């Protein structure tokens, strides 16, 4: 699979060790035994937040050294690990091919960074199903986000699978509405000075929103600012 470059393989599995993450120089579909190289949770290439790193570490350490003695405890551990794997895959995006070792069923499926489902193949979607390179841009009567093959789209569009917070979604909608309002006022009053002053303020807001979107989406997607106009 090649979107921009082939994704780096990453396996999440409770190892009774310092990190539940392993990688390999082999291809993403390699046997799990080939995943022999530790990836520390504080590896700068992952860019994990403290909360996500702690969550993975706690899950890893919760595995009994001698293995599970009851199915109920094993089932709970597997479910918690899957949710952590989904959070990890969403954070990393398409740059990594995340596989989750399900100790209960003895399987290692790929965790989709967008749809959150488990797949047997890394290229189950065939092409990037969600926008990867996103532009925050303000334009009259346009939605605030852009992406190739998506055009302009809403911050809460389920097809984009951004998963932004309600506060950030509301801020992006308001920013777009404010841009429309400025243009509507200019069409009535033709006051260039007032329009330019408003655009300067909205430009600063747009840059701040771009930084917020980039932080929310993590290193798996690029976010750039397209300006106001």
Task: Note down, in words, how this protein is organized.
The protein is α+β, with helices and mostly antiparallel strands and about 230 residues long. It folds into two domains: about 10-120, no CATH class; about 135-229, no CATH class. The protein has helices at about 50-60, 70-90, 165-190, 190-215; strands spanning about 10, 20-25, 35-40, 95-100, 105-110, 120, 135-140, 145, 150-155, 220-229. The longest helix is centred in the C-terminal third of the chain and has 26 residues, at about 190-215. The mean pLDDT is about 90.
Salient structural properties:
six-stranded mixed β-sheet, 2 domains, 229 residues, elongated, alpha+beta, 37% helix, 10 strands, 4 helices
Short description:
The protein is of the alpha+beta class. The protein has helices at 50-61, 71-92, 166-189, 192-217, and strands spanning 8-12, 21-23, 37-38, 96-102, 107-111, 118-119, 133-138, 145-147, 151-153, 222-228.
């Amino acid at each position: 699979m090649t979107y921009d470059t082939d994704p780096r393989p990453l396996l999440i599995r409770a190892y009774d060790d310092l990190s539940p993450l392993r990688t390999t120089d082999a291809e993403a579909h390699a046997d799990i035994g080939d995943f022999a190289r530790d990836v520390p949770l504080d590896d700068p290439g992952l860019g994990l937040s403290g909360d996500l790193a702690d969550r993975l570490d706690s899950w890893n350490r919760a595995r009994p050294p001698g293995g599970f003695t009851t199915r109920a405890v094993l089932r709970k551990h597997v479910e918690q690990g899957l949710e952590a794997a989904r959070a990890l895959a969403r954070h990393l995006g398409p740059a990594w091919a995340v596989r989750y070792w399900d100790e209960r069923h003895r399987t290692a499926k790929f965790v989709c960074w967008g749809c959150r489902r488990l797949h047997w193949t890394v290229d189950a979607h065939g092409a990037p199903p969600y926008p990867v390179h996103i532009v925050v841009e303000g334009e009259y009567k346009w939605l605030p986000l852009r992406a190739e093959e998506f055009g302009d789209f809403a911050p809460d569009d389920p097809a984009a699978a951004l998963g932004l917070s309600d506060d950030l979604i509301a801020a992006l909608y308001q920013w777009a509405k404010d841009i429309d309002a400025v243009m509507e006022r200019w069409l009535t009053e033709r006051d260039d000075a007032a329009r330019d002053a408003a655009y300067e303020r909205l430009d600063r807001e747009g840059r701040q929103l771009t930084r917020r979107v980039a932080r929310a989406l993590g290193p798996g997607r690029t976010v750039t600012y397209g300006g106001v106009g």
